[in-house]
Amino acid sequence: MNELLSAFSKLSPLLAEITEISGYLWEKGWAERNAGNLSIEVTDLFTERELVVGGGVRVATEYTYPDLAGRSFLVTGTGRRYRDLAKNAAAHTGVLRMDADGCGYELLGAGSGDPAFRPTSEFPAHLRIHEFLRQSRARQTVVLHTHPTELIVLTHLPRYRNGDAINRALWSIHPEVKVTLPRGLGLAPYTVPGTEALAERTVEVFRQGFSVALWQWHGCVAIGETVGEAFDLIDTLNKAARLILLCRSAGHKPTGLNETQLAELVQTFHLPE
């Protein structure tokens, strides 16, 4: 049996969902090489006694996360590929527990059985997002990052470089976008990947009430109660971006739904203004 499943059998449904969604990400071309990563807070799945299986080396974090003290996370490893996660997610993930002061973590177990397992290089951003989710008592426990092609293309086009413009375009191209993401997405200006600055800019997006942050020229981060929910948000937005680009490549500037039609959706589906 896989070492991670052997130690944490309660993770089996989560790992099955990660395996499924990882396949979708790879098939869509959103996960070149080792692009993208995933983390899920799993603290509440286990009793304290069940989590006393470590003995791993403590790894200090560059920054402190006091609100995450003692919390545990299932996270993809650095350098791991979604195409491999799609075959066996358990083999490419690990469970980490933050220490008592939120200044580091201990590896409780890794599917590879590798004591040198390290989380994704974007882990600082994941921790800041999880810290925000905990502080705000949000229901979401999943943080999903990937590189959706058409959404990234939109961030290269000057007309879509502000939130109002890109959300108006995405909402108007298909009614499902407004219904699924009534607040749209939040834009984060380009920032060096894996840095605290990117983490802070991403949290600021979520603090404004968005569920998806679009990193300029880089990719997307979504939060959800399940991996599938986070994926669906990005998938809906990227489908809309693709429709916009297809219309433009055909020489047509799409007008789509007007303000009255968008207002009808708000009223019909009782969406937030």
Structural overview:
The structure is a single chain. The chain is of the alpha+beta class and 273 residues long. The protein folds into 2 domains: 3-145, Class II aldolase/adducin N-terminal domain (L-fuculose-1-phosphate Aldolase, 3-Layer(aba) Sandwich), CATH 3.40.225.10; 148-269, L-fuculose-1-phosphate Aldolase (3-Layer(aba) Sandwich), CATH 3.40.225. The protein has 10 helices and 9 strands. It has helices at 3-7, 12-27, 82-85, 123-135, 149-156, 163-173, 175-180, 196-207, 227-249, 259-268; strands at 37-41, 58-60, 72-76, 93-98, 104-110, 142-146, 186-188, 212-215, 219-224. A hairpin with a 3-residue loop joins β8 (212-215) and β9 (219-224). The chain is elongated, with a radius of gyration of 19 Å. 44% of the residues are buried.
Instruction: Tell me the total number of β-strands.
Output: 9
CATH homologous superfamily grouping of the largest domain: Class II aldolase/adducin N-terminal domain
- Overall structural domain count: 2
N-to-C span: 50 Å
CATH class annotation of the largest domain = Alpha Beta
Q: Going across the major beta sheet, what is the strand order?
A: 2-5-4-3-1-6-9-8-7
Please name the CATH topology of the largest domain: L-fuculose-1-phosphate Aldolase
Question: Which structural class should the secondary elements be placed in?
Answer: alpha+beta
Helix count, DSSP H or I runs of 4 or more residues: 10
Low-confidence stretches: none
The outline comes out as: elongated
User: Average pLDDT, to the nearest integer?
Assistant: 94
Most strands sheet: 9 strands, mixed
The topology string of helices and strands comes to HHEEEHEEHEHHHEHEEHH
Whole-angstrom Rg? 19 Å
CATH architecture of the largest domain: 3-Layer(aba) Sandwich
Q: Give the DSSP E fraction (strand runs of 2 or more residues).
A: 15-25%
Helix content: 25-40%
